[in-house]
Amino acid sequence: MSQKPTSDAKNPYIRSYGRRWTKGLRPTRASALEEILPRTEIILPEGDAPVDPRRFFEHPVKEVWLEIGFGNGEHLLQQAVNNDIGLIGCEPFMNGVAAICVGMREKKTQNIRLWPEDARLLMDRLAPQSLDRLFLLHPDPWPKTRHHKRRFIQTETLDEIARLLKPGAEFRMATDHPALAGWMLEKTFHHPAFKWAATCAADWSVQPADWPDTRYKQKGLKQGRPPVYLIFKHV
Question: What is the pLDDT of residue 109?
Fold first, then answer.
């Protein structure tokens, strides 16, 4: 037997994301979700034994990258097209899951697997040092002080990310929210398992060449919110 993703009611973590659904899906997204999700959704084996994420893919993969909160999936989809590796996308917002399913159908991708739930529930089950790269791009900033405990980056979360990343693996983050950028930088910089890769201002202000563009980034730029790019190495 296998385990489906756990419902919100059974999630032991403080909620770090917003709504799960908005209004009804457009027909294209609804049909893509119905077609693509059943054959790409990660189903965990019964029990609590650690799982090698390479087993989620039909064909052997050299590396596995994981993106937490992929939004509409533009970055994840382009990384899958550009790289011959396995990618896991975690996104509890089902409208976003439907959006990437449209792209996966159009691009005929075979190297993406989806976890339509809180990423931490999946991370709990993954084997140590089983990920080669991890992305956290534009997470919810939870700007009010009383909500800071809901921000994804906490010391405990960084401990778990460090457990999952191989030595030398990259942990990439981005945000266009200045206060959150400071929070993520401070928390990760002072964690002993990570080393900031930046050597000059351009390293956090200029988008890396292998970092796919998104409509979310372009929208932020038009509204005067340039993103900050943070790349750390697992040591």
Answer: 97
User: What are 17-54's pLDDT values in tens digits?
Assistant: 555 556 678 899 999 999 999 999 999 999 999 999 99
CATH of the domain at 174: 3.40.50.150
Give whole-number Cα distances, 129 to 51, 92, 134, 156, 235, in Å.
11, 24, 12, 17, 12
52 is catalytic: no
Give residue-wise pLDDT tens across range 169-210. 999 999 999 999 999 999 999 999 999 999 999 999 999 999
Q: Which domain holds residue 70?
A: 61-234
Beta pairing partners, 174: 137, 229
The Cα-based distances of 116 to 68, 71, 178 in angstroms read: 10, 11, 28
Decide if 108 is inside a domain: yes
Q: How many domains does the chain have?
A: 1
Candidate list 52, 84, 140, 203, residue with the active-site label: 140
C-alpha of 25 from chain center: 22
3-state secondary structure of 26: coil
CA dist., res. 120 & res. 100, Å (int): 20
Phi then psi for residue 219, to 5 deg, are -65, -45
CB 68 within 8 A of CB 152: yes
Helix (H, G, I), strand (E, B) or coil at 45: strand
What does DSSP assign to residue 11?
-
